[in-house]
Amino acid sequence: MCIRDSFNPVHKMKLLEVVRALETDDDTLAAAVEVGKRMRKEVVVIKESPGFITSRINAMIGNEAFYMLQEGVASAADIDKALKLGLNHPMGPFELVDLVGLDTRLNILESLRKSLGEKFRPAPLLVQYVKAGRLGRKSGRGVYEYPEVAAEKSKIGVSAPEPASTLTGVQR
């Protein structure tokens, strides 16, 4: 068996992670790598383990960003700006999590925590946001607000999520 992980949007992203499972033979692996190259992707091969290279590292970066926001170290916008300009990331961690979905990020962290331990414990602020229905662009509000999504939802009779009373006075 051989597993591959593409990134969204597939047509723009350059990376393809190919996972070599326990019983993947060399021919299968070579075929998967060749398919990736034909797709004009840069291919990395990893051994079977919880998560992929990028999802594990990105989960840690995004989680630490929530801890920093919770502690009032910097605003969400400044954390995003620092990673874009200082580390050359195309999107900041909060822009990315709002796109992917805070609930998705929380599920990834909880899964990684079960298999890899406490270093993947979700930041309490992330948990609070998800409980409050702040799921990102898809709900009209995540770390940032998306009034165009909220307006569209109100047109079709879907109400925006109400803030949970558990949210603290953290800079958001």
Alpha plus pi helix count:
7
What are the low-pLDDT stretches, counting only 5+ consecutive residues below 50? 160-172
CATH superfamily of the largest domain: N-(1-d-carboxylethyl)-l-norvaline Dehydrogenase, domain 2
Number of beta strands? 3
Describe it.
With 172 residues, the protein is mainly α. It has two domains: 2-47, no CATH class; 53-155, N-(1-d-carboxylethyl)-l-norvaline Dehydrogenase, domain 2. Helices cover 48% and strands 9% of the residues. The chain has seven helices and three strands. A three-stranded mixed sheet has the order 1-2-3, with helices on one face. α1 (26-38) links the parallel β2 (15-20) and β3 (42-47). The radius of gyration is 18 Å and the shape is globular. The model is unreliable at 160-172 (pLDDT under 50).
Secondary structure elements and pairings:
Elements: E1 2-5, E2 15-20, H1 26-38, E3 42-47, H2 53-71, H3 76-86, H4 93-100, H5 102-116, H6 124-131, H7 147-155
Parallel strand pairs: 2-3
Antiparallel strand pairs: 1-2
Helix pairs in contact: 2-5
